[in-house]
Amino acid sequence: MLSNPDSVPFSATLHVRDTCLCLHVQRAARALARTFDTALKPVGLNNGQFSLMMSLNRPQPATMKSVCDLLAMDRTTLTAALKVLHARGWIGSFIDPKDKRGRLLTLTEDGRAVLAKALPIWEATHAELDAALPGGNADQLRDSLKAVS
């Protein structure tokens, strides 16, 4: 059999499959996203929208930059996600009086009501997931994920 110096052995594929942190985190993220999407569907939210709305649940309106930083999201992606929530009347945005180039974001009264319905669903779903972790140590997993993010 001829050896091809440009080929990668199948054993390397198996090694990556079994050890790649990025692959395992991506798979887990997709599974968690599906779980929360299903759970939050009755209130008309998906997991990303829930996280976005929670990021706006603060005493003062949020800047686009602060939300992008919190959610590790670029401005274009945030703008697209906001359009859906704005069309539903769940968020408001207005020009930042301190910086006319920027916008401030806030939850509307309807948005707060939806978030109030969604939170108990999130809490119950999260409790089930936490309990299902080996050793029930969700805090250790969170700490490990924070260390690499």
From TrEMBL:
Coiled-coil region: none
InterPro entries linked to this entry: HTH_MarR-typ (IPR000835), WH-like_DNA-bd_sf (IPR036388), WH_DNA-bd_sf (IPR036390)
Transmembrane segments: none
UniProt keywords, alphabetically: DNA-binding, Transcription, Transcription regulation
Domain HTH marR-type: 18-149
Signal sequence range: none
Domain of life: Bacteria
SUPFAM superfamilies for the chain: Winged helix' DNA-binding domain
One Pfam family per UniProt: MarR
Keyword Cytoplasm: no
Entry's Gene Ontology molecular function annotations: DNA binding; DNA-binding transcription factor activity
Protein name in UniProt: DNA-binding MarR family transcriptional regulator
